[in-house]
Amino acid sequence: MDKLRSPIEMRHLRYLIAAAGCGSFRKAAAELGVRVSSLSRRIRNLEDEIGATLFIRHRGGVRLTQAGEIFLWRAQSAIAQLSSAERDVSAIGRGEHGAVRVGVSTSMTSDFLATLMKIFAAKYSGVQLDFFEGSPIEQIQAIQSHRIDGAFMLGAPKLKYCETVDLWTEEIVVVMPHGDPLTDLAQITWNDLRGRHFIVSEAWPGPEVHDFLVRHLGELGSRPSIEFQSVYQDTLMQIVGSGRGLTLTSGSRVAVQFPGVVYRYLAGEVLPYSAVWSAENRNPAFHHLLGVARELTSSRRRER
Question: What's this model's pTM, rounded to 2 decimal places?
């Protein structure tokens, strides 16, 4: 029956490297804080294991054989690789390296989100941020299938197996063409919007804008006229600028100017935004991102 081979342990390699560097088992043992007999026995076991003499023992100490020099080079390389792997994995485990996959909405040009990403990138420069654009339904599906770590989205959905935290709010803006009678008002109320024609995108967030208009104007006994267009937000703004109707958007869009378009805030209305993620998510880098988001939220609330 073949003799079972015992595995080479890391301490065998460290004893070898120390002995080679010191030129003496006694000095190496003192450097490592072990007994000379223990170090000598471990190196003898290593030589027996690989079937080659690694050291020539002499009265003044020890020196490497040719086989020992080759083995030493390999051992140093192996330990360096393992140490590097340990550092890299440990950094990922601490959330200092790695990647975070984040879902965002296609219309989210929020100052909060831009500031959050800037702060996070400066604090965790070793973490790569990857973005996934999509509707809330698409983002939730991506979270539940673990294709993304989490998402920043409108509202605060209560989902099974998901966690949610409120982060920031944005005001709602009425978008209208130059010359519209509403441009004379500093701020718009729902009553001012009764009987007006609206244009929304078929793509998200158009359906949510549609439901928002129907709900609020319906409470006033008004049935809004709403037209769907198969366009994205920038094109929708151009259609509004041509005089075809009004639309709604978030306050973050005010910074983006379009020819022929005027913005007015809708009094008393805000859009809540939140972070949503799987309760099973164990990505430390993502949880660092959440921590930075919470700190930014707290900071802005204190400034108010």
Answer: 0.62
